[in-house]
Amino acid sequence: MSSVPPVGPALRRLAARTAAQAAAWQPRLGQAVRTRVEPPRTLAEPRHALQGAAAWADRERAVVAAGGTVVLLAGALLVAAPGSASAQTIVPTTPGSSAFTARQAAVPVPGLIQVARPSPYRLPDGDEPAQAYVAMATNLLPVEPPAVPAPPPAPEPAPEPEPAPPPEWSAPVPGAPTSNPYGVANSEYAAGYHTGVDFAIDPGTAVLAVGNATVVSAGWDGAYGREIVLRLADGRFAQYAHLSSVSVRRGAQVSAAEEIGRSGSTGHSTGPHLHFEIRTSNRYGAVINPIAYLSAHGVTGL
């Protein structure tokens, strides 16, 4: 800044007042000059009086012009002076930071907005400073990432299928071929015909209970060799003959498809096979077609 002392407030007020007075008096001086320059003339007025008035008017105009020049020069001096009101930097008289005097701060982190803190300046009449109401605009707040929706819960595993209910009926030897069907006439049989059905199977093949039943007998029975007789749930009887072994006892409860013995060729037999009958009562000859009976109960693979 320049070392020339600033013009004081008194000089500034004097210059302003002088300019105002000159501007106010200029119309009046002009009117007076016109009055003196062009007074009403009479025929009797001497000519040398008119010439004196014109000279006086010229002097007045020169005075006015000089006054205006002084005013313009004073104004130029005020504008060019380093300490004048138009050239000097405004310095706060109250301690505190200012937008004109504070040093430039470092560049803030991208995405952050700096807002001026409330200053110690006070407004007239004790009003609160406007900076006390500074707030962050909502559109300038840091953008929060959108909330990531929680993943949907994993589907519950499908329940395991319930175990199949136990069969109520079964073939005596599932899938075994038939070697001698039921009802074939034969005089060698006491009934005159074949009272059961023969299944061709190897010795030692497991034989199964055809339904839920109670063991009526299990052991040797003459021409039938080793045999087992079951009383079924519907009151019918199932006979297994020519077995090589039995695995149940009289009075035992058995379930459908449960193993009760092994096939063989005991008794009156020409080779390994299973002789199977369905009886309406537990005696010889009281028989029905075993294949038809089991098929009526849903048994397949006969």
Note down, in words, how this protein is organized:
The protein is α+β, with helices and mostly antiparallel strands and about 300 residues long. It has a domain at about 180-290: Glucose Permease (Domain IIA) (Distorted Sandwich), CATH 2.70.70.10. The chain contains three helices and ten strands; from the N terminus they run H-H-E-E-E-E-E-E-E-E-E-E-H. It has helices at about 10-35, 45-80, 290-295, and strands at about 180, 195-200, 205-210, 215-220, 225-230, 235-245, 255, 260-265, 275-280, 285-290. Strands 1, 2, 3, 4, 5, 6, 7, 8, 9 and 10 form a ten-stranded antiparallel sheet that branches. Helix 1 (about 10-35) packs antiparallel against helix 2. The radius of gyration is 69 Å and the shape is rod-shaped. About 15% of the residues are buried.
In the CATH scheme, the class of one domain would be Mainly Beta
- What is the mean predicted local confidence, pLDDT? 76
The CATH homologous superfamily of one domain is named: Glucose Permease (Domain IIA)
CA-atom Rg in angstroms: 69 Å
Shape: rod-shaped
Please estimate the helix content. 10-25%
How much strand?
15-25%
Taken in chain order, the helices and strands follow as HHEEEEEEEEEEH
Assign the structural class, choosing from mainly alpha, mainly beta, alpha/beta, alpha+beta, or little secondary structure: alpha+beta
Low-confidence stretches: 83-94, 96-102
At the fold tier of CATH, the topology name of one domain is Glucose Permease (Domain IIA)
